[in-house]
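To assess whether ligand presence alters the predicted conformation, the chain was also submitted together with nicotinamide-adenine-dinucleotide. Input:
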Amino acid sequence: MKQRSKTQRENLNLNHIVSLQFDKAAKLLDVPEGLLHQIKACNAVYRIEFPVRFGDTYEIFHAWRAEHSQHKKPVKGGIRYSEFVTQDEVMALAALMTYKCAIVNVPFGGAKGGVKLNPRKYSTEQLEKITRRYTAELISKGFIGPGTDVPAPDYGTGEREMAWIADTYDAFHPGQIDNLACVTGKPISQGGIRGRREATGRGIQYGLREVFRRKDGLKKIKLSPSLEGKTVIVQGLGNVGYHAAMFLEEEEGCKIIGIAEYEGGVYNAKGLKTREVFEHRKNTGSILNFPESKNVPHPNVLLETACDILLPAALENQITKENAARVKCKVLAEGANGPTTTSAEEILLKKNVLIVPDIYLNAGGVTVSYFEWLKNLSHVRFGRMEKRREEKSMSELLSAVEDVVGRNIPSQIRKKLSYGPSEIDMVNSGLEETMAEAYGEIVTALQTVKGCSDLRTAAYAVAINKVATAYLQLGVFP
Ligand code: NAD
C-alpha cells in the first residue's frame, strides 16, 4: 500500500492545485466556513460549441468563459487560445484572477475564457472568424460587457484578437458610448493604453524589485538585496517572458543566462541580449543557433540549470514532483499562471527556494488593464489635461528659483525637472505603486498570520480576507 502511494502520479489538474493552495491559507484565517466555500466556488461557467465555416468546410470549436466571483463587477480575465485548454483550467485561471485582483486592489472579480485550438494552425483570416464568432456567443449570453465581464489577452492571444472582439461588440451595440471598455489589451489606436502590451513583464520587474529590496527574505537564500548582476533563466519568450527578461536585463542589470522556447533553449553564462534572441527567433523561426550561445535541445533542461532567478513564463505545471528536486534556482518567479504544482512547491520550500507567486507577480497585466478600462470610460488619455499645465507651473517655479539665487539652472536639468508626465509615465507609476503596495501587504500577512510561512499562502490570505470582507459587507440577496 505504502509502495503504491509512493509511485502515485501527481494530480496536475490546475483547479485541484488552486483549491489546495486556497485551503492552505483558508485554514489559517478567521473566516466562516460557508463563506470560504462561496469565495472558492466558481459562480458561473458558459460552455460553448460553435461552428465556423472555412470555404466549403465547417469546423466545430469548443470554448468556455468562466466567471469565478462577482463580489466586484465587472469580472475580468484573459482569453486563452490553446489546444490543451479545458473547462477545469479555465475555471482555475478565473479563480486566480479573483485572488490576483484582490491582492493588487483592482476592483474586479475574476474571470477567464478559453478556445480549444492551436493558433499556429490557422490563418489570420480564420482566427478573425473564430474570434468574432466566440465574441458573438459571449454577447448572446451576457458574458461580455463594460460593466459585466471584460476580457483581455492571455496565452495565444494579443492586441489583434482584442481589436476584433471590441469591433464585434460594437457592431452588436451600436451607439453605446462605453463599448470600447468591453475588452482591454487593445491596440493603442483602438482605445488601448500605452504600457499594456508590456505590463505583465513590467509588473514582474517591479515585483522582483520589491522582493530584492527587503533583506529579510533574501538572507535565508544568501542573495544580496539588489537585482544587479543576478542570473536569470526564462521559460517562454512570449509576451510575459520577453518583456520581463528585457526589463530585468536592460533596466535592472540582471544577466539573462538562459531562454527556453518550446523548440529548445539557448544558454550563455555571460548573458544573452533578450531583444537579439527575440529577433533571431522571429527571423529564423527558432530560438536555436543563436550566435555565441549553447543550444539546449530540450527546453526543460534549462528549468534545472543553476541560476539566481528562474522565471517560468509559458504555461502551468512546468515544475512538478518529477523535476522539483533538480531545480537549482534560489528565487522562483512565477510569470506564468500555475507553473508550480503543490507537491513541487513542498519540495522547493524545503530546499529554501523563495517562491514569488503568480497571483502577485504577474498581476501587472490586469492592473494596467484596469487603467485601460478607466481610460475607455473617461474617454480621455491619461496626462492629456495636465501635462502642459504641470510643465508650465514647474517652469515658473524654476524661474523663480533662478531669480532668487541669481543663477541659471543648466538647460538639461531644467528640461528634466519641468517635464510633465505622459500616459506611459502615469501608467508605469501607477503600476509600480500597485506592485509595491501589494507586496507590502503580502509581507505583513506573512509576519502576522499565525502559521503562515511562505509568500503564496500569505498572498492567498490577503486575497481571501479582502473578498470575504466584500461578501460580508454586501450580504446575501435575497
Ligand atoms: P504567449 O502566447 O505570448 O507566450 C507564451 C510563450 O511560451 C510562447 O512563445 C510559447 O511558444 C512558449 N512556450 C510554450 N510552451 C513552452 C515550453 N514547454 N517551453 C518553453 N516555452 C514554451 O503567452 P503570454 O501572454 O506570455 O502568457 C504566458 C503565461 O503568462 C500564461 O500562463 C498566462 O496565463 C500568463 N499571464 C499572461 C498575462 C498577459 O498579460 N499576457 C498576464 C498574466 C499572466
